Amino acid sequence: MSENRPAVTARAPAKVNLLLQVGPVRDDGFHDLVTVFQAVSLHEDVTVTPAADWGVSVEGAGGTDVSGVPLDGSNLALRAARLLAGRAGVDEPVHLHVRKEVPVAGGMAGGSADAAAALVACDALWGLHTGLDGLAALGAELGSDVPFGLHGRTAVGTGRGEQLVPVLTRGSFHWVFVLDPAGLSTPRVFAECDRRRGPGWTDPGADGRLEAVEAALRGGSAEALAAALSNDLAEAACALAPHLTRTLAAGRDAGALGAVVSGSGPTVALLTDSAAAARDVVAALTPEVGEGRLRTASGPVVGARVLEAVA
Ligand SMILES: C[C@](O)(CO)[C@H](O)COP(=O)(O)OP(=O)(O)OC[C@H]1O[C@@H](n2ccc(N)nc2=O)[C@H](O)[C@@H]1O
Ligand SMILES: Nc1ncnc2c1ncn2[C@@H]1O[C@H](COP(=O)(O)OP(=O)(O)OP(=O)(O)O)[C@@H](O)[C@H]1O
User: Fold this and answer.
1) What is the model's pTM?
2) Does residue 307 fall inside a structural domain?
3) Are residues 30 and 118 in the same domain?
4) Which residues does the chain have with pLDDT short of 70?
5) Which residue's CA is minimally distant from atom 33 of ligand 1?
6) Pocket lining: 143 vs ligand 1, CB cutoff 6 Å
7) Residue 163 belongs to what domain range?
8) Which of 161, 178, 181, 192 could form a disulfide with 157 if both were Cys (CB 3.0 to 4.6 A apart)?
9) What's its job (predicted)?
10) 147 touches ligand 1 (CB under 6 Å)
């Protein structure tokens, strides 16, 4: 019977947008994007265990504050599991335990990573063999960032961010993330971006930014990538959280090669040219922001996958 199946744990990564080009609002309320995602080594682990009824619990790892995470039917991991069960005709409830390392409402797609990990874990538990494309299609119904949580590595995202094409990259990139105690709501940041643009705004279209990011990734140059980082939501995020302007400057002053708001913010991503340089930036920033708000990570890393049980 289902309750005898062993628990399955899957892991999915956070993301940073190396480029986030925001186009016009579409009729469905989403914006057309051209973005470059990179998966980084902050992870969410989701463990699914057969249970009498559906449920979810959450734990913060490494000091992550999980107080903003819903534990009801709106939790993205739970929604993902129920969506897959519904489509596959599975009637075997699970309890999901989410171990979060990714800041909540931080612009790093933590909730999307939970959904991606839940899809992969449930697919394995129920023996469905849905495949990456099938899971990504389900993931897109849950959120624009979920397909990338499944794919991982580095990819160009178009549409509302759910249509992915892998990007060639060389080597690893080393990041420092400056977390913010307050989150930012993604819809609010997009709305502020629209408000600032005004009704007369016209999309300038392709402007060479994507090509610059792709060339830096192909060449494995942190310096070139730092120069190419850009985010059309940054102005809106800084308008809603004005201290971010100072955080970006402090990161550069601390020796980062480049600084960018991560996605819809408020996390700030600082690019450095080695793991040692990242540690130096942390040391330089600690007096101003405190060690508790600083994380180092590298990318690219793989997308959602089952963690094998240690024998
Ligand atoms: C900011 C990014 O993280 C960049 O990767 C994503 O665009 C946001 O992805 P996400 O959090 O998975 O977003 P979703 O759950 O799909 O959408 C949340 C809300 O963000 C806004 N949204 C999101 C994606 C998009 N292409 N256009 C939008 O305008 C919409 O108001 C939407 O209702
Ligand atoms: N499993 C979950 N983990 C975190 N937040 C969740 C989860 N399920 C639902 N949410 C809700 O989604 C909101 C956004 O969560 P998330 O941490 O994914 O933000 P984000 O990283 O800014 O997202 P993105 O970068 O994809 O825009 C939270 O404020 C919370 O209310």
Assistant:
1) 0.96
2) no
3) yes
4) 1-3, 309-311
5) 187
6) yes
7) 2-167
8) 161
9) Catalyzes the phosphorylation of the position 2 hydroxy group of 4-diphosphocytidyl-2C-methyl-D-erythritol.
10) no
